[in-house]
From TrEMBL, chains A, B, C, D, E, F, G:
Topology in membrane: Multi-pass membrane protein
Keyword Hydrolase: no
The protein's name in its UniProt record: Mechanosensitive ion channel family protein
GO molecular function annotations of the record: mechanosensitive monoatomic ion channel activity
Organism annotation: Aceticella autotrophica
Amino acid sequence: MNQILDFYGKIISLYDIKIFKVCFDILKVIIIAFISKKIGYFLIDRFYIMQERSKIQFPEKKMKTLSSLTKNVLRYVIYFIAGATILKIFGTDMSSIIAVAGIGSLAIGFGAQSLVRDILTGFFIIFEDQFSVGDYITINNFSGTVEEIGLRITKTRDFSGELHIIPNGEIKIVTNHTRGGMRALVNIGISYEADVDSVIKILNEICDDVKKSRDDILEGPTVLGITDFKDSSIGVTIVANTKPMQQWAVERELRYRIKQVFDEKNVEFPYPHLDVTIKDGIK
Amino acid sequence: MNQILDFYGKIISLYDIKIFKVCFDILKVIIIAFISKKIGYFLIDRFYIMQERSKIQFPEKKMKTLSSLTKNVLRYVIYFIAGATILKIFGTDMSSIIAVAGIGSLAIGFGAQSLVRDILTGFFIIFEDQFSVGDYITINNFSGTVEEIGLRITKTRDFSGELHIIPNGEIKIVTNHTRGGMRALVNIGISYEADVDSVIKILNEICDDVKKSRDDILEGPTVLGITDFKDSSIGVTIVANTKPMQQWAVERELRYRIKQVFDEKNVEFPYPHLDVTIKDGIK
Amino acid sequence: MNQILDFYGKIISLYDIKIFKVCFDILKVIIIAFISKKIGYFLIDRFYIMQERSKIQFPEKKMKTLSSLTKNVLRYVIYFIAGATILKIFGTDMSSIIAVAGIGSLAIGFGAQSLVRDILTGFFIIFEDQFSVGDYITINNFSGTVEEIGLRITKTRDFSGELHIIPNGEIKIVTNHTRGGMRALVNIGISYEADVDSVIKILNEICDDVKKSRDDILEGPTVLGITDFKDSSIGVTIVANTKPMQQWAVERELRYRIKQVFDEKNVEFPYPHLDVTIKDGIK
Amino acid sequence: MNQILDFYGKIISLYDIKIFKVCFDILKVIIIAFISKKIGYFLIDRFYIMQERSKIQFPEKKMKTLSSLTKNVLRYVIYFIAGATILKIFGTDMSSIIAVAGIGSLAIGFGAQSLVRDILTGFFIIFEDQFSVGDYITINNFSGTVEEIGLRITKTRDFSGELHIIPNGEIKIVTNHTRGGMRALVNIGISYEADVDSVIKILNEICDDVKKSRDDILEGPTVLGITDFKDSSIGVTIVANTKPMQQWAVERELRYRIKQVFDEKNVEFPYPHLDVTIKDGIK
Amino acid sequence: MNQILDFYGKIISLYDIKIFKVCFDILKVIIIAFISKKIGYFLIDRFYIMQERSKIQFPEKKMKTLSSLTKNVLRYVIYFIAGATILKIFGTDMSSIIAVAGIGSLAIGFGAQSLVRDILTGFFIIFEDQFSVGDYITINNFSGTVEEIGLRITKTRDFSGELHIIPNGEIKIVTNHTRGGMRALVNIGISYEADVDSVIKILNEICDDVKKSRDDILEGPTVLGITDFKDSSIGVTIVANTKPMQQWAVERELRYRIKQVFDEKNVEFPYPHLDVTIKDGIK
Amino acid sequence: MNQILDFYGKIISLYDIKIFKVCFDILKVIIIAFISKKIGYFLIDRFYIMQERSKIQFPEKKMKTLSSLTKNVLRYVIYFIAGATILKIFGTDMSSIIAVAGIGSLAIGFGAQSLVRDILTGFFIIFEDQFSVGDYITINNFSGTVEEIGLRITKTRDFSGELHIIPNGEIKIVTNHTRGGMRALVNIGISYEADVDSVIKILNEICDDVKKSRDDILEGPTVLGITDFKDSSIGVTIVANTKPMQQWAVERELRYRIKQVFDEKNVEFPYPHLDVTIKDGIK
Amino acid sequence: MNQILDFYGKIISLYDIKIFKVCFDILKVIIIAFISKKIGYFLIDRFYIMQERSKIQFPEKKMKTLSSLTKNVLRYVIYFIAGATILKIFGTDMSSIIAVAGIGSLAIGFGAQSLVRDILTGFFIIFEDQFSVGDYITINNFSGTVEEIGLRITKTRDFSGELHIIPNGEIKIVTNHTRGGMRALVNIGISYEADVDSVIKILNEICDDVKKSRDDILEGPTVLGITDFKDSSIGVTIVANTKPMQQWAVERELRYRIKQVFDEKNVEFPYPHLDVTIKDGIK
């Protein structure tokens, strides 16, 4: 009996001290959490102020939203760590907490990876100057003039007026149509009955005329020669090197002149042709 | 013999204390679990109340369901941690429990990642204002007018009346047709025999007429010129910049006028043409 | 010699106690495993009873199968943990066991993730009411009337009578054809020689007639105008907004009336047209 | 000198005892491994005996192979754990062993996941009765009559006689053609010159005749009406609901009758039609 | 001063013993590594000898290469573990070693998973007897006669003589053309002007003739009836069930007979047909 | 009471010492962090100086940016480790910090893997000299002349003037058109009525002429013979082996000569041919 | 006061010893690192010397580059481990370092896996002798003659002269065109009006002639019979088995002979055929 009382006393005293220590520890955790939060907030603010002076500028409103978002995340992270540390003080099994947290973090980590990829690609697009606002580009079959380059998304406007909003992570191969001269290319079909030499001579004259009349051509339209034997016509190709975005105008000009001159000089545009043999039918 | 008895006594006394301590520890775990649950419930309630004042508003019913769902998840998590801690007190091997739990968490984590991606993308769509209710957009070849933007899904209604329900995580590249003027584009085929200059003059007059008669055109219909040499016709293109969603009406108007004026002025729409040579058959 | 004997004695005594303790520990593990099983079974039963009162109802037979399945899984998990704990008592290296178990859990976890995704998506389909039994929907190019919505699979029956069994995890973008009015659309080709104004007038009269004679049309059939210049005909389009699933009947009605009236009023349906030039052949 | 000898003596004595203990420990590991193997074999045998009484029956030969396979795996696992534990007794660094084992387990785990997915999907196909032996189904564009449903693979035989062996994990969307009536569908082209009303009347009579003469039609063949304006003909559609797998016979019957009756009543099947204008050529 | 000397002495003595112990430990590690290697080599040899008596036989040369490869891998693994254990004895931080090793193992593990998948699938192909050498099979659109089935790759030879070398992991759905009778199928077009009944009668006679003259037909060629209304002909289908790989010969035989009999009985094969209306042109 | 005071005293003294030690530890951490940063900066600078002398040269500006970027990353890493170590000194639970950090690292790790792949592939392209600046290559259907090869991206310029910016990680199979002679290939259609032998003779003469007149042909144009029986013509093929990038010029030359010589020698280019049977129509 | 001094003294003495020990430990780490580097370098050199005598030979220059690359990697790994061990001696928290390192290793591990896959597949290609230099093979639709087989990449040269550089990891299914005889296949269209028997007789004679005149035919060209009923012709097929790469020459030879003999014997090659009915037009 005595022994039990004695034992009971020991436990009490043991737990007295332990409770004391536990309270002390919890207090310590809370204080550290509080200080960490303050320091974190201060660092976030400083980071965003520093950011303001950097190259990639954000509108102020976005800045504020992002800053408050970061603080929110920090707050929850600190709460979580503090809570976990307090639970540990009480002797809770940490590995099971981590296992539970693991489900969440795995899901978030996987889910967030596309965000990280967006930002990383965005950074490289800007850092490597892959395209600038105003460039006409093609990404994954979506063409358009760049309207906005952001860290996460790029906006391009199609000729049809449609606005394509493209997450940077979706951007793999970029085709930029406004870096250097572009090729204007016109395919003309000539009749198999026509005299190729004289037609090419006429085309050469047209090319010279067009070259003189326009100042957006970098390298004169040239007749390449016979580029294809087609079913009903001989394919002849004219190419020119023009200032970017002027290639279509040059092509239209070339086509217009060709039609005019061919009409003048009686060169025919060949229609599809068919040889027909009338077999002995009932007729 | 004496030694064994003595040893037996020692074990008994050892386990007495241990059992005592075990009961005490289990009690502690249960109390902490209970308090954690209460605190968790309180925080969840507060979070949802705070949410009510935020931008992205949920209908109240959904709110309730979500709140009770979150509480359920919390409850099971706390039960699991408490259970694991109690098992640990009894000296069960934790690593095997974690391994077992790992199967589940891996599966859930992977399975849930699409949910996380949905919500994250949804957040960015709203935050970056990629489209609003009423916009006509195209996502993965599914076009439609936006009816509802949620954190997890977006609903668009097609012209054909079909309702497309699109998880936000499936949204990669968004094409918005209602941000700025849209292009109306009409392709007309002119006979190779026709006089291109006079036809273009007629088309220019039609463009001026249409421009005057409609107020939904932002930038006058313009005749671009010869845009293609086709098999049986010369392709001429007219483009205009219209208010969004009016492009089709403008195109129909242009086509109607062209048909009218061409009929008046005897300009022919060329049919497909074929040159035929009758070869010596049996005939 | 004496020393060895003494040492031998020590080991014996050491192991005596250890064996004693080991037996005691094993007993403890078995008892805890037994109790855990009982509690687990009780909780599973209670969960399924609770489930019965919830929204998503399962047929009783399925319930029983699932309940016994869950119990089976629990039993094996408990056996595994108990076995691992006993092995640990004998001092077996746990990390190697975990490594071995890891192979299995990784495979199972990966394999099971599609199951988790099925159930999660199924939950959201029901929770967000994306479609109900009887709706006509399209998922991944598989159309059909919904026959059954489950947590794991959805069954739709095609017009052709085929039953599509679709795991919910495969459902990304849902197109629901029965939420609001559907569009009936009829394309008619008019000859280039025809008088467009009079044809459109006739079509307008037909539209008025159809509108009067049917009560499943929500928004009168309207002649949109000239929607295409085709090779051999001018494309005119009529659209109407009908009650869901009635769009095809309305389209057939419209086509029937058009055929009748065109026959009456001698409006021709244009056949494909070809201009032919007979070139100087041998003839 | 004395000190060194003394020290040497200490180490000897230390290692004497250690060697003793090591041998003892190794013996213990071997015994436990032996017992574990026996118990494992017993449980595997019992499991397979139990399996024999369950629903999904395996042929006995497969049973034996699987049982011996499982025992083999168990044996190697036990050898590996025993080996690792013995190495640990000698003080080898376990983490490096685990790292090495990790390479293997990662590879095996990833490689085996498709096996797990096969079995899991197979289980659900049987549990949910998605199809049975004899059903005509379509999976990933492979159609065929089901010949065998296994836990890992499903075998279907195509009409062309080909045997498709499909791992269950490849089965996503199942289309079952033998659950309920199937649709027979015949498209007929009617000349634009024909009298639609009379043709439809004739078709209706044919439908009635076919309905009477066959008992595998669930819902009478019905003339839907004009379902398409085609280039050279008006599309009329007949549908019927038949017993599964009889739809093609009904379609052939319908086509045969239509041909017969049209011949009798001089209704023409329209050939492709072309309007030709002979332009002024050289002729 | 005295104290420092004393302290220095202590450290020396400490390290003396430690160095002694370290040498002893290193020796122990080397001995264990040596023994492990011997045992490992012995087990590998025994495994390959056992393998020789099993079903899946390897050519002896391959056996030797594989055996020496396995021994090589074992040797490097043992070297790595021994090295790591020695480094640990010197007190190097293991976790950083593991982290470094982790990079490699992750890469190797991922890279090797396709190897594991190959072997696993190969095992199942042989175990389930999905195809045997000599079968004509189709895998991922690569058809061919199986020349060799290995654990890692399968070789098939195409009719064109090409040898396809297919890693087993690439094999998903196998189509086996040599398990049971194959279908021979001939589509014949009959003129719309022809008498279907008499043509079908003729075809039936041909079928009977073919049936009699060949012994590789399992189920007589049958005329299915009218299977399609085509633009210029009525589609009639004949099917037969033949011994595997004989279906093409039967089809050719059927076509040859049909051509012969149709020539005899003056049944025409219809050419594509066009109805032409000459519209009022300039002519 | 006395005991409590005594206990209180003990705790105070304990914590006095502890606080002392904590301050000391924190100081130590800060000093080590500071030194590590200095050493790290020095090593980074040295690395970049060394890099300057290596093969793959970067422009100086890029060098600076990269160097400051690396220093930034190092700084944050050191801050993070120092912060974590200080938190640990205060007794915070590290595993929860790691768990939180794990979310981030998982996301970053996954996101950054494409960067690593880019650089690794880039390294191999340069190391294996897969292509050099000026080569004409094809990657994933994007052809172009290489303008720049970087560690992360490769830039190629298309004939149309478009600049393709291709991340190296996207480069799988490279097709290099400028490593060795290229094939010029001309397909000519010969009438079925023509005398093949004489035509081939004429073509052979043309080939000889072209061979003599050009010095960019490595292996003379050869007439392969009849390579196809086409619907309306016999396909004859001419091939030549030319210097890279000259193949198109050679093809055009060949076509031009063929047209000239065929005109001279009255060899016809066959138009599409059709046999027509006029069936008994109304005529 | 006295106590504090005393305490201070204790700490000093403690740290004195500690600093002593720390210096000693750091020295030890540096020495071990130095020795490890030496041993590693020696082993790498020996490995490459051994490699020189093995089957897969590398050019010496590559050897040197690889050897210096491996040494570089080893050096950085040893630096990293030594650095980490020193930091640990100072008491830095290792888990946070590992976490940071984890980001990098994850990224590198993922990025490097394609490298591992390349080498592993390369090893199997060589080990299994899937193709040799000079073979004509097809991989992922890229055909070509193998020019070089490496551990990481395979180079094939297309008939068009293009060099395809294929990473071995991209090689899944290999089609080898030079293992055994190849099939030459010629499809001929025969007029429906022609006498099939006599034509086949003529073709058989041609086959015999070709067989005699060429020695690269393994199995005589055979007329298979009627393989297709086409729109305007009966398809007859001739096949032969030839030495690899000779199939195209044999096909050309066969086509040339057929054309010659058909011309001689007045067998016509049928043109596309059309039956035309002139309907009552305005004419």
